[in-house]
């Protein structure tokens, strides 16, 4: 363990010494990929392995969302306090979280990152907080590690801009914690890279299994028929020849949208933007140069709309601006392999989506820019699949056993239950509800029903699941598709509170939703999980294009495995992991689909499930649960 032990603030548990030694030995040889479940203690262990080298190499710790940036800084504080160290670090947030001006102006509606950035750019010269940077004393901030909220409070006291203050602090930091976007998005990474040189830094990617989707989301966009409708209203407020030219183009574009709506036979279809635009240009007697000119003008008017919105106390958003950016990006990607265009019909509305599938191609050059990289997650297996799909070349990988107590874990695979097929029959939905009923009668704590999709969830609700749950004296909570952040927080808080109330809670949510990954449910907040089906992607045009792209990259069998099987079992594994957060936790798990008994699926499940699996016939689920209930009550 060498010097590492002088930086680890706890007594090492099983596997942690080997975990830290592996990082110390391999970090200079290539990327290090580590699979270890929640509760293993990955964060302090990784810090302890890398901190001995911070005199030469900073640590850039990346997470999926801004809310997760505090964790490594909290552990850094503990290392300082317990071991007498003097490291400085900060959790770095974007303008949306760090702009005091945005909080002061109280614009109509909730502002997103782009809105706040535009506000900052437009009002910076007159911003008292920005001008206050002239009196900034860095020494006030670097006495110990700072969470973003602590930086925000200190800056509020001093009337100084928090966003630009944290940028002033970056060169002093030994550890910087921020979201993936600051690494994988070229424009955002530039703003950090010039203050924290990547080539002299160690990169840690936490919950690294999210990298592919994060990369795809950054480089994708969508517009709807509504985007055109609102863009028309905006351009009609301008009375110039150029504005009328833009208006005419949008009108013709809208006509073509209505034509495409009629062509979408099912829910979606592959869309050919080159063919679409060439057809439109022929009709209006123009060429690509004219199109670019019109889109440039549209973009300029969109900027003017945003400024006007800001002056009126509204969010600086513009459909003109969005519409022009979508088509300008489409022109850049029109012949790029790995960028798909999809048209989908939602009643009488049309959605056009540009979807970037090129995670490995985009990401592979990112990792080479760092002195060393550590990728970690509780669902990184199989490591080879992970490494290939994010573009890693040379790497070492290891999977560490979960720290949970097998005597407190029971897991079942059900025979006779499956969601396989295009539709879930009424009979099968009723069988699931019957099985869940026996499960509810067994577990004297909060439980969750994680379904493979919203469609399956709706089938269970139609089969009377809510009525059954409430009839058992439980409080029923449901994650509804498209629910707002505030509504989801209300559901989450209500479910957690039920663990301390008079009636236990039952949460029904899809494996692809908000609560199946990232939410923590310690103790009796969640002790039982029933998976309904395997959360494969629906075989839509989008899924078929993704499979085709991966099969071209890796071959048919491996491509299907990487693009379809592995992501589904990672979702299932993430859902199962919600109930176990520490060695003291206990859980009872039902894998409600007989396909989980197949080795190709079972080998991708967490070790705490594989090592405790039993197979049971669905009709006798209830009696089996009752016989085992003493272990979980």
Mean pLDDT: 91
- Which bin fits the share of residues in helices? 40-55%
Determine and state the CATH class of the largest domain.
Alpha Beta
pLDDT < 50 stretches = none
What's the architecture of the largest domain, going by CATH? 3-Layer(aba) Sandwich
CATH topology value of the largest domain: Rossmann fold
**Which homologous superfamily in CATH is the superfamily of the largest domain?**
P-loop containing nucleotide triphosphate hydrolases
Shape: globular
Q: Give the terminus-to-terminus CA distance.
A: 41 Å
Strand tally = 18
**What structural class do you assign from the helix and strand content?**
alpha/beta
If helices are DSSP runs of H or I spanning 4 or more residues, what is the number of helices?
A: 28
Report the radius of gyration as a whole number of Å.
Answer: 26 Å
Order of adjacent strands in the largest pleated sheet: 3-4-2-5-10-1-11
Number of domains: 3
Strand coverage percent? 15-25%
